[in-house]
User: What shape does this take?
Amino acid sequence: MMLLFFLAGTVLVNTFFYLIFAKISYATISEKKFSGDFPVSVIVCAKNEAHNLKKNIPLLLQQDYPNFEIILINDASLDDTMDVIEALAATDPRIHTVNVENNEAFWSNKKYSLTLGIKRAKHERLLFTDADCQPASKQWLRLMTQQLSDEKQLVLGYGAYQKTKGWLNKLIRFETLMTAIQYFSYAKAGMPYMGVGRNLAYTRQLFYENRGFMSHMQIASGDDDLFVNEAATKSNVALCLQRDAFTLSQPKETFKDWFYQKRRHVTTSKYYKTKHQTYLGLYFLGNFFFWVAAILSLVFVDWKIPLALITFRLILQYLFLGKAAKRFQEKDLAPFFPVLEVFLVCLQLTIFSSNLISKPRRWK
Assistant: This one.
C-alpha cells in the first residue's frame, strides 16, 4: 500500500509541473507590433568555427532589418576562424571584428571574449547567437529585438537543433525541448531563471548594471544562463515564441561529444538561485521516482491501480508536453516521450555523478 501512495505522490508532483508547463503549451502568441526599427548589434563568438562562419554569417546578413551590425569575435581559435572573419568583414561594412589571442600570461575564455565584443558593439540593443546557428527566417532579428525597451531589457528565444536520423538526434532534441519548456514556463510564471546563448537578446544597460559576467567569470560556462539567472526579474523579461524567431543549430553527431557538452552545461546549475534549484531538483526527482515507483508497483502490487495511475500520468504528459512540442516544431518526438524521458533521467543521473568526480573546464 505504501508503494501505491508513493506512486500517487509522484504523479501529483508531475501534475503540478505539467500545470506550470501549460503556461507555455497553451499560451497565446502576441502579434503586437512595436514601433521603430532601432539599431541592433548581433554578436557572435566563435572558437574553431571557420566552416560554420562561412555558412551562417551570410544568412545573418540577409536579415530583413534596416539597421544592424554584426560583431564577429575570434576566441583564440586554432583553425582559420580569424582568416574567415577578416574575409567576411572585407565583403560587408556591417561586419566588425574582435580578435582574442592566448599568451603565456593570459588564457582567454568565452565570457572575456564576449565582453570585448559587447564593448566593440555600437548599439544599445544586443542580440546573441552562436557560429553554428542559423536563423529560421529573415524576420529573426526583428522578432527577437522588437520587444526590447526600457522596461523589457531581456528577451528569451528558442534555439532548436536540426532534425536528422537516429536515436541520438531525438534525445538531443527532446532534452532541448524540455529545457525550453521549463525556462519559458517559469519565466511566464514570473520566475525567469535561464536562457540559451544560441538565441538571446538584452540591452547594453542591463549588461553593465549587472557588471557583466564578473560574478561568475571564473566559471567556464554560463555566459547565457548564469547571466539571465542574475539579471532577469519577473518584470524585465519578454518571451519570443514565434517560429520565425527560432534558431537552428547542428547537433552533436556522437554521444561522447554530446555527453561532454551536457556535463559542461550542468556545472552552472549549482550557481542558480535557491528557489530555481529547488524547482529543477523537484522536477527531476519527480520524474526519477515516478519511473522507479511505476516499475516496482507493477511487479509487487496488483497491476490494476498502478496501471491506472501510470496511464493518467502519461495522458497528462501527452496533453501538455505534446502541445508544447507542436509549438516548438518537435511534434515527431511525441510518440517517444516515455522512452526519451527514461533515457534523459538516466543520462542526467549519470552526468550528476560524473561531475562529482571531475568537472569540464573548457567551452570548446
